[in-house]
Amino acid sequence: MPDHSPQADRFADWLDPDSKAPNGSSPMPRKSRMSYALPAVIYILLIGTVFSPDVQPVLAKAFGREPFGFPVAWVVAAVQAIVLFPFVFAVHHFMLIAGQAAADGRSIGKVGLLVYAASVGKLHPQLRRSQIISVAGLVYFVLICGAWIAYADAKGI
Q: Is 0.85 surpassed by the pTM of this model?
């Protein structure tokens, strides 16, 4: 005889992507290909900018021509790949929030999406984790940018 306990029903609802939560939303955010592709593209572009010929003189002033015996662009790209990797997760989680905003029929313009992201945890508790990761990622990115600005200023760049 199959088990029809409330826990089994909740688990079945969680597994079924077409099921709806009591507030009418999906129990788990749908992870589209775009929620993975866009963060990856942003990550590649951020790291790829160090190979631009316009950036090379700035990198040489900041770190020397061959830090650790390697070309400066490769060293900076490797460091950026490590330092910016957590930011990829923040963008992914923000894309989940944007997807839910679109599913709810909310504005996904700049201001509308930010306002929605600030309150999404109350409307869709399953996105509370994504909300926290997105905010933490934004703070992390701002701190990294601030550290670079302070370092560049101290070096006179």
A: no
Q: What distance in Å separates the CA atoms of residue 80 and residue 155, rounded to the nearest whole number?
A: 19
Q: Are 13 and 28 in contact (CB under 8 A)?
A: no
d(CA 75, CA 71): 7
**Cα–Cα dist 50/15, whole Å:** 43
Half-sphere exposure of 143 (CA within 13 A, CB side): 10
| DSSP per-residue codes, 47-104 | HHGGGSTTTHHHHHHHH-SSGGGS-HHHHHHHHHHHHSHHHHHHHHHHHHHHHHHHHT
If we measure between CA atoms, which residue out of 19, 4, 77, 25 comes closest to residue 47? 77
Mean pLDDT by runs of 10 across the 157 residues of the chain is 46 41 51 78 91 93 93 94 91 89 81 87 91 93 95 93
119 token code pair: 């309150």
